[in-house]
Structures are given as C-alpha cells and as structure tokens.
Amino acid sequence: MPDYSDLPPIDIPLTDLLPQKAPMLLIGKAFGTEGGVVASETTMGREHELFIQPSGVFGSWILLELMAQTIGIFAGLRNRAAGSGPRIGFILGTRSFTAAVPAFRPGETIRVTAECLAYFESELPSQFECVAYREGAEVGRARLTVYQPEKIPQFS
Q: Would you say 112 and 70 are in contact if contact means Cβ atoms under 8 Å apart?
C-alpha cells in the first residue's frame, strides 16, 4: 500500500471529527480521502506522555490506537457529511498486526494510512487495512475490524 503522502490536509478541527479529547486524542494532523483512504501524522511528544514507558519510549502497540483514530477520521468525515457529529467507535478485532520496530522515541513522526475495505454506516462492522510509516519506511500493519453503533447512551 502506498503511503499516500500526496493527500491534501483536512482543514477541519480533529475534535469535530473524532470523539477523543486530550490526552486521548493522539493524532496531530489529518489528510483527506482519496477514494476510501485517509491518513494521519503524529509526532510523538509530551502530549502522549500517558503512553510513555519507563524507558522513555512509546511501545509499538500505540500503533493500534493511531490506526483506530485514523479510521475515526474516515468515519468522522462521513458522519459530518450526513449532518452528525463525532461518534464513538470500537475495535472489534485485528488481523495480522505486525510491528517492524519495538518502540518509538519522542520526536519521531508516524504517518498512518487507512484504506477502507468495507464500510457500513451502522449495524454491521467495517474493515480497514492500515499501514504505519516512520521516515517513509513501513513500521506497522494491521487489518482492523471496527464498529460504530448508531446510539450508545451509556457512553454519551
């Protein structure tokens, strides 16, 4: 999968697309869809300190949340186009999560792409192929199955 580095930036505040707020909002920039693809960039830093390990690095498992939030951009754009705001979504599972590195250092920038393989507005799970890059090299990959229910009052 290409890194889609030529996608245009999305000029909508991330908090208008995603339900996460600091310190759980991890991504820093969002990039527009090309067909069924969105991308994000995150420079690991102090705003992510909740996830820093005692050794001063961020474990590669943080890629799963970065991938999920990148998928959330896709869903947020769709929700916005339909006239609604950000909605909570859930990761139901992942296939073949791989990480080529064990950790990331503060200051490193991670770019994540999420390609929609199947998307359903509600009732059914959706699936995305996600790839993470650091300095243009692939550092992680997963296929995520996600679900965004129409209403979940217990979480609102």
A: yes
pLDDT in tens, the chain (156 residues): 666 778 999 999 999 999 999 899 999 999 987 678 999 999 999 889 899 999 999 999 999 999 999 999 999 999 899 899 898 999 999 988 999 999 999 999 999 999 999 987 667 899 999 999 999 999 999 999 999 887 776 655
3-state DSSP call for residue 124? coil
Q: Is 14-155 CATH 3.10.129.10?
A: yes
| Cβ contact 44:110 at 8 Å | yes
How is the chain split into domains, by residue range? 14-155
**Could you give the CA distance from residue 113 to residue 129 in angstroms, rounded to a whole number?**
8
First and final C-alpha spacing in the chain: 36
Q: Which helix (H) or strand (E) holds 134?
A: strand 126-134
What pairs with residue 42 in β-bridges?
Answer: 110
